Task: structure prediction
Amino acid sequence: MCGAGILPARMAGEARRQGWRVVAFTFPGAGDLEAAADTIVPTTIEAMAPVLEALVREKVSAVAFSGKFWMGDLLAAGPPDAVHARMAAHAGALLDGNMTEVIAGTLAGIGIELLDQRAFLGDWLGAARTWSARAPSDEEWRDIRRGFAVARLMAEASVGQTVVVRRGAVSAVEAIEGTTEAIRRGTTLSGPGAVVVKAVAPGHDFRFDTPAIGTETVEAAISGGASAMAIEAGRVLILDREATIRRADAAGLALVSADAGG
Result:
């Protein structure tokens, strides 16, 4: 199941390398998967009946989600088909956790296993370390620790995973707008010298989503005058790692993976 971004092609390629036959269900923004998939099935977020029919027709035994699926797209989508409407009714609310449970149950009902994304991410999930040439200052580390504490609470409440902090004050918490827009909002409010932190809820389900940052995320932080960015080690990945680190270094942004605690 391929959402937006570069991750679907990466995961599809890794799955083929491992010997899987890859059927790519491409949602809007998924990009070009011709070289990475054996079969491509164009898909829309509001039409679930054709997805289930294609899963059965292609004799799919396991599903992996990849890329970004925006809650805003779900809210802006056209009228759902009967299958989608029934799934939404069972979810009861547009909370990620509610909907993912229904999706998992629906797939299990037709004999399909839902796979952990991390099996197809290769070395993109890094251990705790400083990625940039510059390490965070003591003051930045204090804001990083504060940010991790808040971000984990917000992620556990299914609000968002990213926060912006300056001198202990939280200027933004990610919500429906996504990471990049939350960074822009937070750095505008905090002024130069803010720290951006991205963490994951303790019980996060990696079958549906592996949180990530990349060049766009770092660019938003730099444009807003942020001085450091920290992600949770082993649980948030860096997309296009080399280019992301180069951009951070060019701007003097400290970029680290760290233990979020708890």
About this structure: The chain has a mean pLDDT of 88. The longest helix spans residues 138-156. The domain at 7-120 is CATH 3.40.50 (Rossmann fold). The CA atoms of residues 116 and 206 lie 5 Å apart.
